[in-house]
Structure to design on (149 residues):
């Protein structure tokens, strides 16, 4: 099984970026935990962080071409307005899970809306770095055909 992990804008700064909201774990810490979990099931991960919408879109296209099985994405602020990213997720036709460190619904109003949610399998929101692990767990279950157990 091959899974693409995408981290959007400014997530490269995790650890020092507004730690009271996003925690003190760095992106490398989170990636290490994801790799550890994936290794348990012999899952291949490709992990990409980009501050550029187009790079994230290119990665989705590439994942489809390379016959990946699913995508876990924290799109950062692109969540709230990027129709281009939404179309790329839909075009990839890959089961995609959206993850957010913070509980976006407890924050500013512009963060309450995700334009991507409707093309995703599900969302995990508000559990800090654990949102990624819970999202990966959910995606693996979905891909294994057992989403409800
Ligand atoms: C975020 C929430 C977004 O609103 C914000 O723009 C981010 C991080 C999160 O993980 O909580 O960059 O996606």
């Amino acid at each position: 099984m091959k899974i693409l992990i995408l981290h959007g804008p400014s997530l490269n700064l995790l650890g020092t970026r507004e730690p009271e909201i996003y925690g003190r774990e760095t992106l490398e810490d989170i990636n290490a935990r994801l790799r550890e979990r994936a290794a348990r099931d012999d899952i291949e991960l490709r992990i990409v962080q980009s501050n550029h919408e187009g790079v994230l879109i290119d990665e989705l296209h590439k994942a489809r071409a390379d016959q990946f099985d699913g995508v876990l994405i924290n799109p950062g602020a692109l969540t709230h307005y990027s129709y281009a990213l939404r179309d790329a997720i839909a075009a990839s036709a890959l089961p995609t899970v959206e993850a957010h460190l913070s509980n976006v619904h407890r924050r500013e109003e512009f963060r309450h809306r995700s334009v991507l949610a409707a093309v995703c399998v599900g969302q995990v929101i508000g559990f800090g770095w654990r949102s990624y692990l819970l999202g990966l767990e959910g995606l693996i279950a979905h891909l294994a055909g057992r989403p409800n157990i």
About this structure: The mean pLDDT is 97.
